[in-house]
Amino acid sequence: HSVVRNALFCLETAADEKENHVYTKALMAYTFALAGKAEKRKALLGSLEKEAVKKDGSVHWQRPGKEPEVDLPYYRYRAPSAEVEMTAYVLLAYLTMQPAPSQEELSFASLIAKWISGQQNPNGGFSSTQ
C-alpha cells in the first residue's frame, strides 16, 4: 500500500541521521523487523549494541544523561518504565525477523530478557502498563 510504503521511506530516511535517540533507534529497529527490512534492522541493532549497558550478565538500554543508580542496602533498583519499554522493543527487534534469528542473536536476546525479567515487581508486573 502506498501509505505504508511512504511511511517506511520516511523512516528509512530518518534512520540514516547520525543523532537518533536510543529510544527512536529501538522503535525503528522493531519497525524494520516487522517490515522485513533486514539490512536497516541489522544496522540499527549494531548501533544499539554499541550503546547497550552490559552489567551482571544482562543487557539493557537507558536514556542518555541518566543519573547513576543508587546502591542502597535492602533496596532493589527498578528502571523507569521508558527504559523497560525501549529495551523490550530492542528484544522484539531481535526476535521478530524472517527467517528466524541466528543463534548469536538468540543468545544476545536472552541477555536482554534476563534484564527485563529482573525489572518485574513482586506481583509479576512492571512499573507501568506500557
Report what the structure shows:
Pfam families: TED_complement. This is PZP protein. This protein has one domain. The chain is built from 5 helices and 2 strands; from the N terminus they run H-H-H-E-E-H-H. A two-stranded antiparallel sheet has the order 1-2. Strand 1 and strand 2 form a beta hairpin. Helix 2 packs antiparallel against helix 3, helix 2 runs parallel beside helix 4 and helix 4 runs antiparallel to helix 5. It is globular and about 55 Å long.
Attribute tags:
single chain; 130 residues; mainly alpha; two-stranded antiparallel ribbon; 5 helices; 56% helix
Short structural description:
The protein has helices spanning 2-15, 22-35, 38-51, 81-95, 103-118; strands at residues 53-55, 58-60. It is mostly helical. The longest helix has 16 residues, at 103-118.
The rough form would be described as globular
Strand content: under 5%
Distance, first to last CA: 29 Å
Low-confidence stretches: none
Number of strands: 2
- In total, the number of domains comes to 1
Q: What are the secondary-structure elements, in order, as H or E?
A: HHHEEHH
On the 0 to 100 scale, the average pLDDT is 87
Describe the biggest sheet?
Answer: 2 strands, antiparallel
Biggest sheet strand order reads 1-2
Going by helix content, strand content and strand pairing, the class is: mainly alpha
Helix content: 55-70%
- Estimated radius of gyration: 16 Å
Helix count equals 5
